[in-house]
Structures are given as C-alpha cells and as structure tokens.
Write a structure and sequence with these properties.
With 437 residues, the protein is an alpha/beta fold. 49% of the residues lie in helices and 11% in strands. It has 15 helices and 10 strands. The chain has helices at 21-33, 42-50, 54-62, 117-130, 133-144, 160-173, 175-186, 188-230, 250-283, 350-359, 363-374, 379-386, 390-402, 421-425, 427-434, and strands at 2-6, 15-17, 289-292, 297-301, 306-308, 315-320, 328-330, 338-342, 406-411, 414-419. The protein has a 4-stranded mixed beta sheet, with helices on one face. It has a 4-stranded mixed beta sheet with strand order 2-6-8-7. Strand 7 (328-330) and strand 8 form a beta hairpin. Helix 7 (175-186) packs across helix 8 (188-230) and helix 10 runs antiparallel to helix 15 (427-434). The longest helix has 43 residues, at 188-230. The two termini are 13 Å apart. 37% of the residues are buried.
Length: 437
Amino acid sequence: MSVVIVLEGAGPGSFTVAVSPLAELSACLHALTESAHHPELRDWGRAVTANASAELRAGLRRFSPLWSALRWRGFYPGLDGTRPAGAGTGVGLGIGAGPGAFAGPSAGPGPGAGSGLGSVLEEQLRTVARLPIGRFAELTAFACVNGYTRFDFSRLLRSADQRAALEHAATALSAGRRELAAQLLRDPEACRADLLGFLDRCRSEFFAEVWAGAEPELTRSALAVRGRLASGAGRAGGSGSGSGSGSGSASENSRTAHTARATRVTRVTRATRTTEDLAEALASLSPDSSRLGAPPRVVFDKLHHSVITPARTPVVLVPTRFNAPHLVVKNEPGLPPVLHYPIDAPEVGVTLARSRMLALTDPHRVRLCRLIAREPMTTLDLAARLSMTQPQVSRHLRALRDLGLVGAERSGRFVHYRLDLSAVERIGQDVVRALQH
C-alpha cells in the first residue's frame, strides 16, 4: 500500500508550508504514550509524567486513541476546510500566488516569535470548538477505530447502524478505544469540552516550554522546504511573444513562427523543471519514497492507500521535531491533505533496512563479512580464504557496498575492503525506525 501524490498540473502554489503548535503537541502526546517508538525521548517523557498533575495523567490515558496510531485530524491546519495562513508562527509560509494561495509576509519571524504560543494555540483550539458537532464526532470516530477507509461516520449521531459500527470496531481494538467511543456517543459536546480542556492543560504544564525550543527549528525547516518547492518557480527563461502584425514578409512570418515554437518549448521545459523540483522536495521528506513518471508522481510506502492530487486539492506540509521518524499523511474527505514530516528524515527506509537484513542471511556473505570485520582485505585474499573465484567475491562485495555495509580503501594498486561496523550495528535500530515511517 502507498500514498501517491500526483504532480501533473501542480505548481508551487499547490502547496502550503505551515508551522503548527497543535500538530506538534499531538507529536509530543504520541511520544509520551508510545515511548517504545521514541527511545531518544524517554527521559523527557519520564520527566513530564513525573511532574504531571493527576488530571493530565488521566487525560493521557483517556484520549490516547487520538494520537497513538491514526492521528486525529483535529490536530492539523485546515480543519475548517480553508487553506491555513502560515499557522503557528503568524508568518506567511505559503508559497506561490496562484488561486487558493494566501497572502502573507515571507520573512522569518522576528524576535520573540515563539512567545505567541498562547494566542496561536488558543485560536487553533477555537477552530476545533467551532467545528459542527457532527463533524467533530465523525473525525473522532475515525481515530477511535484507527482507520477511515472502511467506515462511514458522516451521520454518526443520527444513525443507529453507524453507532453500532463504531462500538463494534472500537471494542475489537482496545478497552481505551471502546471507552472513548462510548463517551463520544453518550455526550459528544462534553467529550469535546473535556478534550479541549486537556489540551489547554498540556500547554500550561509542559508544552509551552517544549514549543519555545522547537518553534525556531520548525520555522527554519518550513522555510527550507518552502524554498525547495519554489525553486523552479522563479527560473528565468521567459520569452517575448515575438508576434508580428501578420502582414510582414515571408521571412518575418517565419521568424514569428519560430519564436512561437521556442516559447512553447520554453514553457514546457519550465513546467518540467518545476515538476522535477516539486518531486525532489517531496521525496526528500522520507527515505521510503520513490519518484515515478507518466504521470509524474511521488509515492510514499505507507500502510494505507491514498491518492492526492495537489492541482485539484492544495496540500499542507507541517514540520515536526517530536514526531520523527514518522511521516504522517492525512487525507480525509473534504479537508486539505496534510503531510506531517520530520525535520530530520531518517536516512534508512524500510526497503533498505530489509535489503540489509537479507544480505546478511547468505552464508558466503556472512563469512566474508567476518573476515573483513577484523581487517581490510583484497578480493584476491578473500577468494583464497573463502575458496571462491574473484568474480564471485566481487559480486558479493558490490552488493554489500551498494547497501552501505562495506567500504573500500585504495593503497597503491590494491583495493582493500572493510566492513562498516557502525552500519551493521545500526541495522536493528534502523529496522525499528523504518517500520514506523
């Protein structure tokens, strides 16, 4: 399964980069309750929970289905169906000026930009509070059952069948999901009020401090991604129309036709370069991405299937520090698609991690690796020690070098190969992180 972003007809104006405190708060909550996913944050998580109030701890348990696996759409910009205006910093990080793009300053935040967390987060929470209760119930039900492709909760508060489907699916998953679903069905307004109160408590107890440190990093990342997405939009190369009156000489008409053809070629070339820039920028967000053509598209290896067409529905990109290594893709009907991307994308994806594991299941390669783990050796030495031909040894070494497990050093006319012990040591950790992308 995969998430496919079709770039045909898309331009820089099809994307918005927004820094969002509410989205980053969801990442923090995920790290707090899913510590196995984020071992580097365990000490921070222990410190937060050790100093947390009883109300905060209760909220972490009660509302955890909203951020444990399928992230609740209420955490992300564009919840009211409109394109966010640089949410989170007061800085317009939208790119392009085409239809649907918003206007806003493009400069970075001034001194003290992070000090506006209270008002910005409050406005985001007010957006959740203004959501029609049926829509709130629908989006919350999706999170309770960890998926929206097999369910229809658009009439949840009025349909006995949809209520029964929610209760059945949530019960099959966990007691926590069953309890949250029951609260939602019993009194959705009270459920929303309790959730908003919990999120505001998070701000006062721990998130204000987190945001003060994270916001500058997120803004820098957003500006960098914005620049990569827009890099093709400002390319020079526009040509004059070269049009004549239509009554000139044959040579003048020929020059006019040639200029028109050149203009068309320039436009096609510029559009192709812009698409390539967009594809490169999007693919850089995850190691589990690939770029395909006809039509041009970027494919992310995910556990659900979705097709996003930015030319028709503009996409919002939101950077995160606490959500790494996860790349979260939200594409609920009627809302702008969102890519919540880590500011430091992992270098190893699930495909490379799997290939490295498979490479070390071959007994010949294992013996070869044992030899070059102790000291660098040439293909001639390895062939003699392993009772193999040099071409056989070379093929194994080439495969291991392509996977980044073996390095080569030239000494005069000899090439010595050595096992990259740090890369091998990281295989287990890389697999764990890759499975979470």
